[in-house]
Specification:
alpha/beta; nine-stranded mixed sheet; three-stranded parallel sheet; 2 domains; globular
Length: 503
């Protein structure tokens, strides 16, 4: 999971899905090749330990973290002496109150319980914040090489296969680490465009060396705001000495630090005037014929990076813009209907809507009561809305409600309506299936609480994609945030002439 230290909403154990072996397999059913790899070797007895699936958000409360660790300890004690290798499916950007390096502390705990002879391997998101202590206690690791992430299963397979291979050949590998003091917002460091593309492509070449088992570049998650937050380069090798390629990759990353930026084919905007800017695009898009929709990415409230997902800035700006343009529909004419969809996390409002019932109306209900703007009078209030549909018992937990919260006649004989997909659990909408049976092609505009579009969703949209730099727990304008725990100096917040000389 990714944590934002700037989120006002702490996470408890209730924000995690605790999964058994069968539940884990069912949750990741699409990763059948990974499970096939797990069970492929007849001489290996694979046992599932503790599995907690976390959602992105604020920092985890210390008592919840201690409860998680308490679930790990009995398993380690029960199998002590019988375990030869451990595989960990981690992310790397978790934040915990009172623990600056939770993943590092977890691996150190496992190492202390099982001893030096047991091999430990782990797979990570490339947005993990990897500490030297974590690498010291891991024998091997690998991270995604794609962002957007399309090699998740492939990375897990590699981490587990490395573990099996080293056990078979009696190899005790070493993981080397170089911190590269750079902060990067994820939307500026995609691997589909330069410089990320060539940097990550170079890793495969480095891995051809017989001494190198894996090479990874971690871009980090800046909003975790801990001393370990930074880019870094890691290499897992057979020998104990760091190879020269490790420093080569680190230098290449450092030399390209100023080149990271938003993709050139993406429009960039702030909130002010955003809907005036795209009004012509909306009017030129007839979803019935073109089967397409435009997309606004609410970067500062990006749920997948740790934001709350309930800030209503863009929704309010849209309502305000509509009211300025309001004009009666011409008598006897059928207006052209434009529909807008957005998502908001609001646990209490979901429960209220479910209690009222599908097809009924709600009145004077506030949206986003736990956001950064919580308890302020300007939070958006649904004066009258229709509950169109709700879903229960979702595989990722909680309920969803589809609510029509606003409808307004505009100039040029058009009618604009706004639907809000309310979620009980914070949810990142990355793929079409995340929207359940909501037909995105019925909408002219979709406002995502997210960053870059994943390939399948971008292919479906076919419209204009606009990144909107918004305030929030993961504001991409890093220079505007009040940092407390970063190891300084770090680019771009500080001027650094050289960094490898002190590594």
């Amino acid at each position: 999971m990714e944590s934002s230290a700037f989120s006002p909403v702490d996470l408890t154990l209730g924000d995690f899905l605790v999964k058994s072996e069968e539940e884990y397999k069912k949750y990741y059913a699409s990763q059948e090749n990974f499970f096939r790899t797990l069970l492929a070797s007849p001489w290996v007895d694979v046992r599932f330990g503790c599995c907690l699936r976390g959602f992105t958000g604020g920092k985890v409360r210390q008592e919840a973290w201690e409860e998680m660790l308490a679930q790990v300890d009995p398993y380690l004690e029960a199998h002590k002496g019988a375990i030869h290798g451990v595989y960990l499916d981690l992310h790397g950007a978790m934040g915990v109150h009172g623990e600056p390096d939770p993943e590092g502390a977890l691996v150190e705990r496992i190492r202390r319980a099982l001893g030096e002879s047991v091999l430990i391997s782990a797979s990570f998101d490339l947005h993990g914040n990897i500490s030297p202590n974590l690498c010291k206690n891991l024998d091997m690791l690998c991270a995604y090489k794609t962002s957007p992430h399309v090699d998740i299963e492939e990375t897990k397979i590699k981490a587990f296969s490395m573990l099996l291979d080293c056990l078979t050949k009696n190899i005790k590998p070493t993981t080397h680490h170089i911190r590269v003091p750079i902060l990067i917002a994820g939307e500026k460091a995609m691997t589909t465009v330069e410089p990320g593309k060539s940097l990550y492509e170079s890793l495969s070449q480095k891995e051809q060396h017989p001494n190198v088992l894996n090479a990874s570049i971690f871009l980090g998650c800046p909003w975790t705001d801990e001393s370990r937050v930074s880019c870094c380069v890691t290499m897992t090798t057979i020998s104990s000495e760091p190879p020269p390629e490790l420093e080569e990759i680190a230098r290449s990353l450092w030399d390209k630090r100023s080149e990271f930026s938003y993709p050139k084919d993406i429009k960039i905007s702030t909130i002010d005037g955003i809907f005036e800017m795209i009004s012509n695009d909306l009017q030129g898009l007839n979803t019935e014929n073109k089967k397409a929709f435009h997309t606004l990415c609410d970067l500062g409230d990006n749920v997948s990076a740790g934001a709350t997902g309930d800030i209503t800035f863009l929704l309010e700006e849209l309502i305000h813009w509509c009211k300025l343009k309001e004009m009666p529909i011409s008598p006897g004419q059928e207006p052209r209907h434009y529909k807008v969809l957005t998502t908001i996390w609001d646990r209490e409002l979901v429960e209220h809507c479910v209690g009222v019932g599908e097809g009924r109306n709600i009145k004077n209900q506030y949206i986003g009561r736990k956001s950064i703007r919580a308890n302020r009078k300007e939070s958006y209030c649904v004066e009258l809305g229709t509950i169109k549909k709700f879903w229960e018992n979702l595989p990722f937990g909680g309920k969803h409600v589809l609510l029509e919260c606003f409808k307004c006649p505009l100039q040029n004989n058009t009618l604009l309506s706004v639907d809000v997909l309310l979620t009980q659990m914070r949810k990142a909408f990355l793929n079409e299936r995340d929207f359940l049976d909501v037909n995105l092609l019925e909408y002219s505009l979709v406002i995502l609480k997210g960053g870059y579009l994943f390939p399948k969703l971008q292919e479906l949209s076919k419209g204009v994609v606009i990144y909107v730099e918004t305030p929030g727990a993961v504001d991409p304008r890093l220079e505007l945030l009040k940092w407390n725990n970063l190891q300084r100096p770090i680019f771009p917040l500080d001027t650094i002439e050289s960094f490898l000389s002190s590594t």
